[in-house]
Every structure is written in structure tokens, then in C-alpha cells.
Amino acid sequence: MKIERLIGIIMLLLQRELVSASEMATMFEVSKRTIFRDIDTLMMANIPIYTIAGTKGGIGIMPTYKVDKKLLTAEDLTAIIASLDGMEQLLSSAETKKTLQKMKNMLDHSSAPPKSSISLDFSNLSMKKELNAKVESLYLAIKKHHLVELSYIDRAGKQTIRRTEPYHLLFRNRSWYLQGYNLERNDFRTFKMSRIVELKTLEETFEARPFVVKPFGGITNTKPIFLMHEVTLMVDKIAREQIVERFDTIEITQQDEDHFLAKVSLPDHEAGYRFLLQLGTHVTIQNRDDFYDNFVEYLKEIQEKYI
């Protein structure tokens, strides 16, 4: 859209002394003639833009305007670029790459750009190509309002076909999720990407209904799936790291040189039991209650498979 391009040109000129019309045309994917028309529009709006002819010339904005009206500093842009770099590792779409390149081009190349004090690295995540392909397909389906058909395995292991209006992609705890409106259930649902066996983007489009992104699980009128239970755990230093990274709010106190007492909220369900099993011998349940008994029964079922 023209208004977005005009704003983009102003932001670019606020960060760079001079930018050639050719570079702008390439960056915004329009012709040089369009860029010059945009410059005329901005000048008519009293934006103090000037042009310098010649091989070393270009388009600039008056320094006084930069001092008074600056929108983003180089440090601001560097922080945004760090975030986009992380996003590109997770969602390698063409649009994300274009946006990242545009933001990089806004930095002043006449001097070394400032180094960011933070960086994001998702390179060690086990993101398989097949899963990435599904994420990108859903990203496009969301943008173009195409229905999708999911062959989906739920928590109980039941596989069904779900015709869904896709609305939002969420990356949380090393996993991708799709939030959308399931036509069979006539309600919003959250689907874990790794449980999608097959994904089809349909030709049929839909008119978007009101949707508000919420925290995980995240959709209005969503009820808790499992009964949550407060569990007291004795953990060592290795398990403590996992507990701190997994839970937002916990009560944890050091008992001795090597052990900590942690109170956490876990689902009284296989999902909670599996989490404890990941910690192996580094954790021990302290309170003897229903959760404890159910966890022991779960361990017995596992043991019976190997006897």
C-alpha cells in the first residue's frame, strides 16, 4: 500500500544520510518513477526532503528534521533486527526475509552498525523440514483466508479430520501450535503442529470471524483440559534448571548444598507424569496424595510392558 511505503521511506531517510532512487525501488519493489512520485507526495506534505544528482548523490532528509522528529534510533533498529533474525530461523518465509533485509538497509552503512546486546539462536532446535513446511503453508493460508483440512491425532490418540479456519500461529516451549476455528466443533481450538499427520490447504476461502489472541490455550471460553495439582518436589541442581525454565511462578527453597524443595502445579494426567519422567532420578515427589498414587500406577503400567 502507498501509505505504508511512504512511512517506510521516511523511516529509511531518518536513518540514512542519502539513499539512491534505485536502491529504494529495489527495497520497496516498485519502479524508480514510483519512488520519485512518492518523494513529490512527501515534499507536498512539507517533509523536508532533498535530492542530490550524480553517481554519489541520492535522496535525503534535512538534518534538523531528523533531530526533531526521529522515530527510531540505530539501537532501536538493531534490537528489531535481532528479533527478526530469531523469527527467520523459525519461519523462513520469503516475507520475513524481505522485512529483515529492509530493516537492515535502514541502518547507516557509512559507519559500522551498533552491535546488539542480545541475540536469539534457535539453530539447535529439532525443527524438521516437514514441520517447517507445514508452518509456512499455514502462514500463507492464514494470510489468504484459506480453509485447511487437518488429519489430527488428539491427546487420547484418536485420529480425526478437522476442517479449520486458521487464524494464528504460536511458538511455545519448542513447539508450534495453530489456533483456529474448527467447523466440526463450531468453536475455536488449539492444534499442536507435531500432531498433524497430514495438512491440506483447500481452495475454499472464509470470511474471518472475530478472533482475539490470548495466552496459550488461548482462546475465549477455553476450559482447562486437565485437573491441575500442586506437587511438592525434591530436586537436585540438574532438575532445578528444568523446573525454573518450565514454570513461570514457582516456590523453590534450597534445602542443603545439593537439593531444593520446589512447589509446582502439574496436570494430574499422563502429560504431567511424562514431565517428571524426563527428570529421572533427579526429582522425588514429596507429598503422598492422589497425584502420587496415579503417578505410581502409571509407572507400573510402563514396567508391565517390559516384563
TrEMBL record:
PROSITE patterns: HTH_DEOR_2, WYL. The keyword Ribosomal protein does not apply. It comes from Listeria welshimeri. This is Transcriptional regulator. The keyword Transferase does not apply. PANTHER family: PROTEIN PAFC (PTHR34580:SF1), PTHR34580. Keywords: Transcription, Transcription regulation. InterPro entries: CBASS_pafABC_assoc_protein, DeoR_HTH, HTH_11, PafC-like, WCX_dom, WH-like_DNA-bd_sf, WH_DNA-bd_sf, WYL_dom. Residues 2-61 form the HTH deoR-type domain. Coiled coil: none annotated.
